[in-house]
Amino acid sequence: MAAINDSGEPSLNVHLTKYDSAHGHFPDEEKVEGNAMAVCGDSIRIFSERTRQIYPR
Length: 57
Prior knowledge:
The protein is of the alpha+beta class. It has one domain (3-50). The protein is 16% helix and 37% strand. It is built from one helix and six strands; from the N terminus they run βαβββββ. The strands form two sheets. Strands 1-6-5-4 form a four-stranded mixed beta sheet, with helices on one face. Strands 2-3 form a two-stranded antiparallel sheet. A hairpin with a 3-residue loop joins strand 2 and strand 3 (24-25). The relative contact order is 0.30.
């Protein structure tokens, strides 16, 4: 996964990843790092944009 486009706070995405109701508790560490979330040592950038041309490819 390269990026997430969401209007919510990055901390909400971390919480939803950790405590997903469909898949259960995520066992690895997740944390917010600026405008990204780190999951299993990988950084996933978080955007709040309406135009898709700015997304990384």
